[in-house]
Amino acid sequence: MEGKQYLLALNYFERFGPRRLKRLFDYFLSWENVWQAQYIDLKNCGLSDNTINLFFDFRKKHCPETLFEQTLKNKIKLLFIDEENYPNLLKEIYDPPFVLFYRGEINEKTFASPLAIVGTRKMSSYGQEVTKELVKQLVDYNMTIVSGLAFGIDIAAHEAALDNNGLTVAFLGSGVDQIYPRNNTRTAQKILDKGGAIISEFIPGALAFKTNFPRRNRLIAGSCLGTLVIEAGEKSGTLITARYALEEGREVFAVPGSIFSQGSATPHSLIKAGARLVVNASDISEALGLEKIKVMNANQKFLPATKEESMILELLGGEVLHINELARLAKLDITVINSRLTIMEMKGLVKHLGNMNYVRMRQPTQSNI
Predict the structure, then answer these.
(1) How much is the pTM?
(2) DSSP helix/strand/coil, 45
(3) Which CATH number fits the domain 301-360, given the four candidates 3.30.530.20, 3.30.70.1350, 3.40.1190.20, 1.10.10.10?
(4) pLDDT per position as a tens digit, 283-338
């Protein structure tokens, strides 16, 4: 992606969110052109006089190259939407961030099998025990536990993953240098120490305003294969995350609870609406097709790749592709591609995400090419 310094600078202007940035890019065709745009063109893009004037004031005070250098000096990493390790599923949502700010590590394993776990901040002892047990089981499937570092179910899910040597990622409603709530700073550091990541679409220094959390929730749901709801009241913000997951066609899971508990209101309403009832991790693994992955991880045996498999892996790269597109790019018959993909999924080389969409899991350990 050209002009990353300009894209980053545009992200620092608070009135330019993902949707507006996309509209501007579609008009100007480069981030540098957006940054240097004149009044009449910005007006033609639908910006108000007030927004244009504020942008011009912002542009006078900031240098894109300087902002880029300052961000990196603060030990904050950048992940642009066209880069390999940007979460593939997140690219598919309606308004993905063009740039993510993060600390820690994001690699090919981070979002290979991600599951969002969310719930109430006012967690009961039942909710805590359920979270601990389910996360322990989910870690056995090598799932990355994704949540929001909030009090209650969120922090319990992160801690359970860490206690079981699992990988966990936290999306924030603030800048990655502004851990919120502050009481969870220690857990945030543990996530970094154990190979996870703290991620945000908000610029460094951004505070955790209430309006930020729905935006944060769409990233939690959008980056994952599914969302698991454990305890949440009737008006809980957890419902926002579940709705985002449903809107993006992702699986929604819910743990049942006591009919006398307020924390059971949202899980029970979701189950009534068609969410999958969960009592153990196998309920989730069956829905997401993770059993094969668990067997593969236990055996750790990978057969050599054929020329066709090598070609498919190269075409997939870090992207999600439909089987028809793979067949077109590989110039192979659809029946051949289908047969190869079935075998490759059994080996753990690729994963079927549903609707005949596939993503690469890992490279083979040896090859006969």
Answers:
(1) 0.77
(2) coil
(3) 1.10.10.10
(4) 999 888 876 555 544 544 444 457 788 888 888 877 789 999 898 998 888 877 88
